[in-house]
Write a structure and sequence with these properties.
Layout lengths: L1 E6 L4 E10 L2 E11 L6 H19 L3 E5 L7 H20 L3 E5 L1 H8 L7 H12 L8 H17 L4
Parallel strand pairs: 1-4, 4-5
Antiparallel strand pairs: 1-2, 2-3
Length: 159
């Protein structure tokens, strides 16, 4: 089974892939879709859909773990993120992936053991758990792998 984790963003959208066999992770990879070069939101959303559509076509994940919305003091940022999440959910639905949503706190608890963990702690634990050959440069990719790991931890004892 392949689990896709997605850390939504309208400028940088991280995604991470876990290849799971039984209760073991046998492969992992991640990347960031960089949309920051485009100022126009509709064009960024189109680029996001195109990039995710290519990832979904290539890897064909059965499930996707997406970070749920959280409260932010800048309301405009929340709406922009909502647009990006809508595009992400559309791409996943069109490819038939089952979608699971997790809050940042749930991910931190699953990966670090503490729902109040820092980004640096999440980055460190993801790196330790997956022993990535080419560590990603941006936290968005680590967060996406954290989402996929969170889902893996939820399902590994159900099998």
């Amino acid at each position: 089974m392949i689990i896709l984790g997605i850390d939504p963003g309208s400028r940088y959208c991280g995604y991470g892939l876990l290849e799971v066999e039984g209760r073991r992770i046998i492969g992992a990879g991640c990347e960031v879709v960089n949309l920051s070069g485009e100022k126009d939101l509709p064009k960024r959303l189109d680029q996001l859909y195109t990039a995710l559509d290519a990832v979904l076509s290539e890897y064909q994940p059965e499930v996707a773990a997406v970070e749920s919305m959280f409260f932010h003091k800048h309301i405009r940022s929340v709406f922009t993120l909502g647009h990006a999440r809508g595009v992400i959910l559309l791409a996943l639905a069109r490819h038939g992936a089952r979608i699971f949503e997790y809050t940042p706190r749930e991910v931190k608890k699953a990966v670090v053991g503490n729902g109040n963990a820092t980004k640096q702690q999440v980055r460190y634990m993801v790196g330790q758990m997956l022993k990535l050959k080419a560590p990603p440069a941006r936290d968005d990719a680590y967060d996406a792998l954290g989402l996929a790991l969170c889902h893996f931890h939820r399902i590994k004892f159900q099998a």
